[in-house]
Design brief:
There is one protein chain. The protein is built from three helices and five strands. The protein has a four-stranded mixed beta sheet with strand order 1-2-5-4. A hairpin with a 2-residue loop joins strand 4 and strand 5. The longest helix has 13 residues.
Length: 87
């Protein structure tokens, strides 16, 4: 699962018991490029994207990833969050 932002990711990881990768969130967290993110999705390493609803930090990469996900995958609302299934 991949939510936008470290605070959302940490809460989701604790409650779900599943590995979660944040797209930004803290000042120096590494953020994948769009190409790296797309490659990980196509390789089956990322199955879901959760829109954290808090923007995408100050990262252009985070915004590009969010835009790509929204353009290529349908979403559903689960527990008040917009979730995209990437496979």
């Amino acid at each position: 699962m991949t939510p936008a932002g470290a605070p959302s990711a940490s809460a989701l990881e604790v409650t779900s018991g599943r590995p979660v990768m944040a797209i930004g969130g803290w000042s120096h967290d590494p953020i994948p490029t769009l190409d790296q993110f797309v490659a990980a999705v196509h390789a089956g390493r990322i199955a879901y994207y959760v829109d954290g609803g808090r923007g995408h930090g100050s990262s252009a990469f985070g915004a590009k990833i969010a835009d790509w996900v929204k353009e290529n995958y349908p979403s559903t609302i689960i527990g008040g969050a917009r979730v995209y299934r990437l496979n």
